[in-house]
Amino acid sequence: MQTTAAPATESDLIAEYEAPPGGAWLRLLGARQNNLKEVDLRIPLGTFCCVTGVSGSGKSSLVLETLARAVSKKLHRVGEQPGPHRELIGAEHVNKVVIVDQQPLGSTPASNPATYTGLFEQVRELFARMPDSRIRGYRPARFSFNRPGGRCEDCEGLGQKKIEMHFLPDVWVECTTCRGQRFNQETLAVQYKGHSISDVLNLSIGQALELFENIPKLRAPLSTLAAIGLEYLTLGQSAPTLSGGEAQRVKLAAELSRPDSGRTLYILDEPTTGLHFDDIAKLLKVLNSLVDRGNTVVVIEHNLDVIKTADWIVDVGPEAGAAGGEIVAEGPPEELVARSLASGKRSYTAELLEPLLRQEPRAERDVFDPEAAARSRKGDVDLRKVGRDAAVPWQADGRRWHVRDRVSHTGQPVRWEGAALELVIDALAEFDELSEPNWNHRSIVEVMSREKSGGWFLHAETGDEWLLTLKFRVPKSAFDEGALNRRLGLKRLDDLDELPVYGRGERVRIRNLKGPFQEVVVTVHWQRELETDAFAAFLADAVRAYLGQARKASLNPDDLTPWKVLGQKWHLSRKGFPSNKRVGWDAELILVLAEHMARLADDLIIDWSGQSRVTFAAEGEPAPFAELHTKRREGLDLSLYVPADAFALGRISGLADDRSIGVHRDGRQTIQLRFTKFEHLHNDDWRAFLEEVRELLN
Fold this sequence. Notes:
By secondary structure, this protein is an alpha+beta fold. Helices cover 31% and strands 18% of the residues. The strands form five sheets. A six-stranded mixed sheet has the order 5-8-9-3-10-11, sandwiched between helices.
């Protein structure tokens, strides 16, 4: 920021400077929390700002208790009541507020840097893609120490047990079952490059970065943690053992790892407390990178090494308590010194900065680019493709896998008789109009018609330990559940003393599906349960009914659904909602919003043929600029697609009943608004917003 030639008075301070990098100023006027004396705080958006002053001067009252709460209240309409102030100006240029404090990440060993940053989700996904996991049917949840299944149940995945001490602090001791490894032996058997999931949690961040160097989704957050000076921490280090500074830097790393469109206000309270000089330099590198991405960083700070690098300084004082509560000087570091001398108010910050600024050399700021670590490099492997090339038994010999070698979803051997599945598949082979079975799935065998019309006929689910589940798709009303149960004569599970599974329900169930089909579900354990004339007759009847419907589907490919036939009338009707509960908004809202959307483009194409969505597109454009979701009971949802970073959340904070901002997969900004009342569509703010959208689209 450059100053203009003419000096300005204190009240006209903003006019003295060009527009800040964020395009506007955030102003809090008339703050009077605790000892504050009607002070006016000015923050140039898109900069690194330090709030300084002696302890007790009013910094926390101004920044944490008033500014942070006021902006949060403005954006979300909820939160703690801010300190008394006259007015907040400029919040419409802010998307969200993030307070990065030194509070612990969590209070139990279940919280750690890997879970807090989201890194552990990617690690679990990686282990679930290992060939051993695919064969055993392990999902990512298997590798979570917070869920039953893969964790050690004796310590509930903590690796430690708590011993409660009366009148003394609780004591944590290592679990004698898993020896601190958190997981059971079956889960630990799955390894990546010789490391089990427990080994990974025990790696330092620096070691983990070497292990996952060629996987961008893991490399990016690990590089961020290392860049912020935390390479010595272990991924699974429990949250209560982290210092306040470490916890704060983990939170910063988590913020850097998230997708960011800028316009976020970050507030930190003395982040350099207890840090070594080298760690302070790393922290500044990260804070500057947040600013370079279009965000605003406000730091309450005493450390001169941080203060001297700020873009803007606000000095609160001059003394503590009743003798403080004023802004004695503000501006860039060099001008803060000059302004303090001219104002006549004593600024201790200015007095200490003056010799530093005079003696120390200037240098370019060092920044960290978190996106650079995520960019593709030679030798990189997409996480989604890990383990894909490994040969799996159901693809090599599907019939053998499903009939003889199958493993249940829990990793246990399957106990139901494979001959039962062979009996069904061999019986269906007698029908020429059915295709060969598809065995190339871990836990499903599929049979459909040769014409591939009408969808699948049989899904045999083979992943349960004790029961084979046969699902048949037939036309609606083809079978009656009660009559079919009597016909097949399968006993309830509670009546089968030989099996350690229980259930009072019938083992033949029928339910209607969307469209013309019903689903008949039969569960069996022994081959002998299917070696009956009744089951053979049922199978023949089911095949004939299915093939008849499949032929109709091939003759009539276009399903005459009500939304395609009725169009607008369907969306205005009260049908098609997911439950029978009352709809909380008037259908006429659809017509009003559709009319408003029509004003945004001259040559408009409105598509009413969707089941629950109406789209609005300009003629000749491949993608719609707006969508109405008309079958949600909570409200009428509008999605607007505008150029990237067009609006901040603060700009739309007064619109609709609920609102949010995101990024569409094509890079455009998504504005989501929920309406339930007409008054939201008939006010000046909404009309002005629509005019801004129209200018952007045209």
